[in-house]
Write a structure and sequence with these properties.
Distance between the termini: 42 Å
Number of helices: 3
CATH class: Mainly Beta
Shape: globular
Order of helices and strands: HEEHEEEHE
CATH topology: Barwin-like endoglucanases
Helix content: 10-25%
């Protein structure tokens, strides 16, 4: 009798636990886009008189995976702190800065104070994937 009772209790616990383990949906929708990618550094002649502060007020630190985006991309969802994956790079970058209004469909990869690395990168067309918050998921 005790054995049947413990088996019954175990079954109830298993069922209740499995009901609580609903599959969590990714809270982002990942979109792709081909853009022109250049590089920039923390120098006043490339940014502003305070080259370590972004247009959104963030502090830039060499080695951090940050990008700046053209303002037309902001309208597509690449807003402040949007996670972005860049073709040819490992990891995820964050949108931390915005570019001059004259640029279109363009990102600038932050390369700290490594001017040689930025010049070597030059200008390339790359594919990016960026995350948009999925408003259809329920919490």
């Amino acid at each position: 009798m005790l054995r049947k009772y413990s088996l019954f209790i175990s079954l109830i616990i298993f069922i209740s636990c499995s009901d609580n383990k609903k599959e969590k949906k990714d809270s982002f929708i990942w979109k792709s886009r081909k853009v022109t990618a250049t590089a920039y550094n923390s120098f006043a002649n490339q940014t502003s008189s305070n080259p370590h502060i972004t247009a959104w007020g963030d502090s830039l630190k060499p080695g951090m995976p940050y990008i700046a985006v053209s303002r037309d991309l902001i309208k597509l969802g690449l807003t402040h702190n949007t996670p972005v994956k860049l073709e040819g790079f490992n990891g995820t970058f964050l949108v931390k800065d915005k570019m001059n209004r004259r640029w279109k469909n363009r990102i600038d990869i932050y390369m700290g104070k490594d001017l040689k690395k930025a010049k070597k990168w030059g200008r390339k067309k790359i594919k990016i994937k960026y995350a948009i918050v999925d408003t259809t998921t329920t919490k």
